[in-house]
Amino acid sequence: MMKKQNFQIKNERIREQFLKLKGNSPHRFQERLKLSWSNWGFGLETLEESICRLKEAGLQYIELHGNHYGDDLGYNIDQTLDLLSKYDMKVSGVCGMFSSENDLSSNIPQKRQEAINYIQRELEFTNAIGGEYLLVVPGAVGRPNPYDETEFDRSTQTLKSLGDLFKNYNIKAAVEPVRAAEVSFIHTVSDAKKYIDAVDHQAIRHINGDIYHMQSEESHIGEAIIEAGSQLVNLHLADSNRGALGEGFMDIDTIIMALHIIGYNKGNKFLTPEPLGPGGDPYPAMNAKPDQNKLKHLVQQTVTYFKEREDELLKL
């Protein structure tokens, strides 16, 4: 018999653990994984259009674009609540957007202040609309080159100053590791854990994973999910080409098995597709005019394929 490749050996370990757990504790698999969708990649369309597309695909949750870039910008709380009620849609969380203009790690104090102000606005919004988490990126997306050797320290100190506010609003701070092509630091689950430990605040303990970034930075995505464990509160999904699930070579089965191993189907923990396409800076997508047919395909293909794969695994 041909010797297996290293990643195949790791896959098989996860599969064996999944099957053993399923055989010994079948009750743990009665609840399915919760799918949401991150809408900021939909670009310049109304929130109602986004919600209608997701509802048509059978989704019950949406991750909202954190678009409160100023006091007079972003989704209105009352209007958002009205739309959520109208379409019976719930909010999983809010995708925080961090650029060089609101960078927690910036060497320009005013830019760190912008990050603080931005997070304050998004926490108020997230709490009001019933979201579970606010995604936080420790350094600016689209800036792969470091400022200096102390950006980690500035970022942790700045985020820690907001810890009590996260606690008061009862919102989880979900720290996201991002691939090195897009950010200058915090690239892996291990990095995120070290960052969280350095922040050292009881309200800032969670991780937002992203399998597209993981395929660049982790030695094995399934193992990284298991390493994140109970700290993982949201996981962004995209295939290997950062497109719809099932249109690349991402090993979705192993990802699903790893998630069930850590009990990710229990409680308010979410899987949130974010197929943005390749490139070093995805942020231009939020200001682009969307192709409605393309977006419909992205959503329908991704949701259908993910549910099919989970169904297949739960039959084993």
Could you please describe the fold and organization of this structure?
- By secondary structure, the protein is of the alpha/beta class.
- It has one domain: TIM Barrel.
- It is built from eleven helices and eight strands.
- The protein has an eight-stranded parallel β-sheet with strand order 1-8-7-6-5-4-3-2.
- Strand 2, helix 3 and strand 3 (90-95) form a beta-alpha-beta unit.
- Helix 1 (6-24) crosses helix 10 and helix 10 (252-261) crosses helix 11.
- It is globular.
Break the fold down into its secondary structure elements and pairings.
Blueprint lengths: L5 H19 L9 E2 L11 H10 L4 E5 L11 H10 L3 E6 L13 H21 L3 E4 L14 H10 L2 H7 L2 E4 L13 H11 L6 E5 H7 L3 H8 L3 E6 L14 H10 L8 E4 L18 H23 L2
Parallel strand pairs: 1-8, 2-3, 3-4, 4-5, 5-6, 6-7, 7-8
Low-confidence stretches: none
Q: How much helicity do the residues have?
A: 40-55%
**How far apart are the first and last residues' alpha carbons, in Å?**
24 Å
Beta-strand percentage range: 5-15%
Q: Examine the secondary-structure arrangement and name the CATH architecture.
A: Alpha-Beta Barrel
**Superfamily at the CATH H level?**
Divalent-metal-dependent TIM barrel enzymes
Largest sheet: 8 strands, parallel
Radius of gyration (CA) equals 19 Å
* Helix vs. strand class: alpha/beta
- CATH topology term: TIM Barrel
Number of helices, where a helix is a run of at least 4 consecutive DSSP H or I residues: 11
GO molecular function, one term: isomerase activity
InterPro entries: IolE/XylAMocC-like, Xyl_isomerase-like_sf, Xyl_isomerase-like_TIM-brl
Protein name: Sugar phosphate isomerase
Keywords: Isomerase
